[in-house]
Amino acid sequence: MEYYIGLDVSQRQTAICIVDGKGSLVKEGKTVTTPSDIYAWITKHIDPKLIKTVGLEAGAMSAWLYTELSKLGLPMLCMESFQAAEFLKAQRNKTDKNDARGLAQLVRLSSLFSFATNPIRRPVLCSRCAIFWSARRWISRTTLQVRSSRLA
């Protein structure tokens, strides 16, 4: 039996949902948002050798969790926020528990449709780096527009 896990990460707690290959709910719960606590919660409920994929949505803590959980031997998958949000819009009630369940189903489906998710191949930029690159793009665009208006 293969298992798919969805993690809905927040700063203090992570909602975890485990589904089997047919999409049936196996176990769900919450734990503290640290790699060791998440790993301990998962291994308490299922054999880690039977895990096909563990998925989480890209966010502020996803690069850290992705890296550390990968080091612990979990097959990780980081999903683009936009695509995960579009998939989760179909839910009636938006709760951490329901988001984790939806992410687990999305991870399960991603094995059939690989276009839905992208594994992290490099660390996600930290927020300061992202702000820097965003500002740099804006300055470059503005400079180009000023130069273009002087030529006209």
Explain what this protein looks like in three dimensions.
By secondary structure, this protein is α/β, with parallel strands linked by helices. It has two domains: 119 residues, ATPase, nucleotide binding domain (Nucleotidyltransferase, domain 5, 2-Layer Sandwich); 31 residues. The protein is 45% helix and 22% strand. The chain has five helices and five strands, in the order βββαβαβααα. A five-stranded mixed β-sheet has the order 3-2-1-4-5. It is elongated, with a radius of gyration of 19 Å. The chain starts with a strand and ends with a helix. About 4% of the residues have low confidence.
Short description:
45% of the residues lie in helices and 22% in strands.
What's the helix and strand layout?
Blueprint: E1 3-9, E2 13-20, E3 25-32, H1 35-45, E4 51-57, H2 62-71, E5 76-79, H3 81-88, H4 96-110, H5 127-151
What order do the strands of the largest sheet run in, or round the barrel if closed?
3-2-1-4-5
- Measured between the Cα atoms of the first and last residue, the distance is 67 Å
Mean pLDDT: 82
Give the helix/strand class.
alpha/beta
Level-1 CATH class name of the largest domain = Alpha Beta
CATH architecture of the largest domain, by name, is 2-Layer Sandwich
The Cα radius of gyration reads: 19 Å
